[in-house]
Amino acid sequence: MTNPPDSSQSIRSVRTSTARIRIRPALAAVLLAALLTACGSSDGPGSPDGHAVPTGPAGTGVVDGTVPSPPDRTVSGLRDDTRHITRKTTTGTRPRMVKRCTPRVRRVKHTSTSGTGRRKRTRTWYTNDSYKDCKKVQQGTMRYTRVVRRARWCVELDNVGGKSTKDDVWYEVESDVYRRATQLKEGAKLSFTPLRKGC
Fold first, then answer.
1. What pLDDT, on a 0 to 100 scale, did the predictor assign at position 23?
2. How far apart are CA 31 and CA 78, in angstroms?
3. Neighbours of 156 (CB within 10 A)
4. First and final C-alpha spacing in the chain
5. What is the pLDDT of residues 12-68, one digit of tens each?
6. Which of 43, 51, 69, 110 has its CA 20 to 30 A from that of 189?
7. Angle ∠(180,182,186) on CA atoms, nearest 5
8. pLDDT tens digits for 36-47?
9. What pLDDT does 32 receive?
10. Torsion of Cα atoms, 52 then 53 then 57 then 62, to 10°
11. pLDDT band of 120, cuts 50, 70, 90
12. What are phi and psi of 33, to 5 degrees?
């Protein structure tokens, strides 16, 4: 006589099959989400449209490790005055140093070893090595020229940048800019790149 199957085993089998059917769609959804995330992040962080974004500290404008070029330093205004400050020098004296050498001789020790063990022998001898001992010594004095003030070329502008309140502003410029300014009448428009502000 055959025994009927255990009802508890049948119930467990049905529950296991149902759980497997539920897990498979969930696993597929997880894999699909991971694939979409990987494809969407190929442009890099913070660049969903593929454009470069600043990677340096905030406010530096650094993009991909490059620093933007400095802004144009060209100034413009109305020519007011010009000034040429000449070079000023003075003379002085200082010690005149010369190289003086004295021939000398030093004794140099030499050694030579031959043989091994009890038959090892060391030979020592000396030679004289000639050389020059040189140093700088003072020999009188010499005159020299020292620059007290360098030459400068300056231009004064009014209405700098189109602002009527910015008048009488001096700029140090190259000599060719200075010569160009001297050929203009006072009040003429003038633009240039200064070396520095002030004169």
1. 46
2. 71
3. 20
4. 122
5. 444 444 444 454 555 556 566 655 555 444 444 443 343 344 444 444 343 333 333
6. 69
7. 115
8. 555 444 444 443
9. 62
10. 40
11. confident
12. -65, -40
Report field, pTM of the whole predicted structure over 0.90: no
What angle (nearest 5°) sits at the alpha carbon of residue 105, between those of residues 133 and 122? 130
Q: Is 75's pLDDT higher than 80?
A: yes
Q: How far is C-alpha 68 from the chain's CA centre? A: 13
Q: Confirm if 108 and 95 have CB atoms less than 8 A apart.
A: no
- Say what the pLDDT of residue 172 is: 95
- Contact 99/134 with Cβ under 8 angstroms? yes
CA 11 to chain centroid, in Å, comes to 75
Whether the Cβ atoms of residue 96 and residue 137 lie closer than 8 Å to each other: no
Q: How many CA atoms lie within 13 A of 190 on its CB side?
A: 28
What is the structure's pLDDT at 29?
Answer: 61
Q: Which residues pair with 196 in a beta bridge?
A: 172
